[in-house]
Amino acid sequence: MTDSAKPTLLVVDGHSLAYRAFFALPVDNFSTKDGQHTNGIYGFLAMLINLIKAEQPTHLAVAFDTSRQSFRTREYSEYKANRSESPSEFKGQIPLLQDCLAAMSITVLQKEDIEADDILATLATQGAEAGFSVLVCSGDRDTIQLVDDDITLLYPNVQGVSQLKRYDTAAVIERYGVRPEQYPDIAALVGETSDNLPGVPKVGEKTAVKWLGQFGSLDALLENADKVTGVVGANLREHIEDVRRNRTLNRLLRDVELPVGPLDLAVQPMDAQAVRDIFARLEFKTLIPRVAELAGIEQQMAAVTSAAAVPMPVAVEPSPTDLRAWLDAAAGEVGVTITLEGGLPNRIGFATADAAAEASWTPEVSEAISGWLASASPKVFSDAKPQVKALRRAGIRLGGLAFDTSVAGWLLRPSFPDKTLADLVDRYLDEKLPEADPSQLVPETEGATPGQLSWFALRVTAALRAELSPSVATVLSDIELPTLLALADMELAGVSVSHEKLAAFSSDLGERADAFALEAYAAIGREVNLGSPKQLQEVLFDELHLPKTRKTKTGYSTDAAVLADLQETNPHPFLDLLLQHREATKLRQIIESLDSAIQNPASGGDGRVHTTYVQTGSQTGRLSSTDPNLQNIPVRTSESRRIRAAFQVGDGYDTLLTADYSQIEMRIMAHLSEDPGLVEAFISGEDLHRFVGARVFGVQPEEVTSAMRTKVKAMSYGLVYGLSAFGLSKQLRIEQAEAKQLMMEYFARFGAVRDYLRSSVERAKIDGYTETIFGRRRPFPDLASPNRVLRENAERAALNAPIQGSAADIMKIALFRIHDDFASHELRSRVLLQIHDELVVEIAPGEWDAAERIVRDRMGGAAELTVPLDVQIGRGDDWNDAGH
DNA sequence: ATTTAGACGTA
DNA sequence: CGTACGTCTAAATC
């Protein structure tokens, strides 16, 4: 509990935290082009910025040690004598860090013969006396003794500098079992290896706490040392002088003479130019906006309030020719909103910063403004794709798409995308979008008109741009917006699916499912709803008395993996029949939903299935597909591939082409980790799992058995998801020890992979987000969660996000370039489907060679990685034929 | 009528 | 105790 009326003094141990940051971050990723290492500086500053943002101190200082010598080394020459020389890469970072702090107008303190923690102790003591709420941030446990009602310690976690644990008096008692002022007594008894201060042998925290509880104080304990029984008692008596020495040395000085006091440490405005200069020199690109944000909060607030003063314009409704003139006269970007009726434009509205115009969609309006809509004149939309499609249906190809608020909102917060313009107005303008009250037949409140919606979209655009980092802005303009236009065309094109093929298969499956069901009932002597997990639990565990399986929220699991396990340990005919029934009904289900999605030619449809790609549907940058989902059409069993066979080349086209990236995620892993072995695997062109298997098992590639290959394959793929030994053992049905051994062997040969994965998560903890190769970001607040489950889930997701996300970026780039190339080469061939690492293309007569070349070149050349991007192409009359 | 949980399809 | 999705059914809830 902090007293908000009190000023807050934050004092930081610069040396110890920078040193921790140095070990937490990979030195390779943080070097300037002239070879200066900067990982310690970066990590420290990132942490400090976060800290200032979170704690909002009014007063601030950072203390440093001057050298390894201090009054303590003079008192006890062995003090810290075990510390190895700090690595050469670290040297030189401290003076540069101090330069950074100076540019940020943050006071730096150091004093000959005195350690940084003594400076912290002095300032904290003076600050508490002067009425400050004091925060001490240090990586040295001795500072625990400073904690009291006014002084709180922020101590870095073992995981790194990114997470600071808050120690107030209660937290110290909870963690160490003693009051803060008693902690040095514990430390004196236990000793401090890192300071080369041996304590009493066999005495750890538990014993020390017990003793202090018994005797009341360290002095009392030492006086009554003869009363302590056993080996530890003897040890205590033998090392009593060590304990006294330790206690002297770990007492922090609270009365160091300093040139400044707490009141002199008020936070000062930064020297913006100096900050820019030194950060540029250190090549800290991402830190600059974060520091600026810290420094410029007041300005930003002012900007927001003044912007709210502009009144919402009333839209004019000019004649078609006047509307065209209005658009031509508009300077800069124009907000555009098209409302739809039956897939076609209904009303269309436009806005500039202070005016709006709108019209109903008529042939005259269309005629008058189609040229402007197709032109490069910049336009801003909110959720452009359906509107782009409506225009396409009306024969107009939109040009000049400059911004989409929905996509931008998603890029900024992919985990909680603001779904509508109203959400964005709420969040980024802190205003309410006027909405018609849907509960009343005659709404009391007017909704915004298309022109006014456009005006809001334009204003939201300005607010979103202010928050987009340069890299994310580039992802929006260079990847997402071109992709949006390609997706619109893909959705319009749809894919031809044969009702006849589906229908035949479906009735097949129906009969089989019924037969399995009857047999299953016979096996247990009653009917049961096989689709009800609840009823199945009764059958399996109450009636058949099979052993309880994995727990779920509501009972015990009956999923396929569990049933397969049960079949092995407690074979029963019902289990297998249930699995077969499930498989058949699942397939039939998929077929039914697919069939009903075919636009029936009998009622004016085109006999094709038109999915909707949700561009803002994932947290990683992937697309998702709905109504129907065409990204989860079965492929694994030969049986299920009959469904793919129903996806066929459409009338007027020649053949289907499928193109997929082979092992794109592992290639990205090779690129990001620069693991020499993995890179060699891909450059050699040998089968990846065979190559890896040979290394891991120490045999020749041709000696890799299929069992070995299966294992390393599972391991390789698992890596991308943050797999544990436990998970690997379950997946491969091997002992955990063997899984552990496999991981050890794997990392022994491909160590840079592990280094990369570790450091990438560590970096995410410091930055608060992950980044793909192309700069797409995903925030991970839960990386700092004290809840272990939440945190570890976030760690696995953060490990996966840059890899899955980079693959998504690459595919999007390939996709829109192929789409655009087809158009510019005036091919009729068209991309129909995207299934994450695969494209399905419909090839027009005579265009195979040209189209195949474009697909191959664009997919292979979508990114320059240190390993090649391998593309597999297939050809056939249906998707199954064309696949491989 | 809508929501939740379990199951399962894909990359 | 492996990431990212969407959709189906049954059952629970409104």
UniProtKB/TrEMBL annotation:
It is an enzyme of class 2 (transferase). The lineage of its organism: Bacteria, Bacillati, Actinomycetota, Actinomycetes, Micrococcales. This is DNA polymerase I. It catalyses: DNA(n) + a 2'-deoxyribonucleoside 5'-triphosphate = DNA(n+1) + diphosphate. Belongs to the DNA polymerase type-A family. Keywords: DNA damage, DNA repair, DNA replication, DNA-binding, DNA-directed DNA polymerase, Exonuclease, Hydrolase, Nuclease, Nucleotidyltransferase, Transferase. Transmembrane segments: none annotated. The keyword Nucleotidyltransferase applies. It comes from Microbacterium pumilum. In addition to polymerase activity, this DNA polymerase exhibits 5'-3' exonuclease activity. It holds the Pfam family DNA_pol_A. Its EC number is 2.7.7.7. Residues 5-268 form the 5'-3' exonuclease domain. NCBIfam families: pola, PRK05755.1. PANTHER family: DNA POLYMERASE I, DNA POLYMERASE NU.
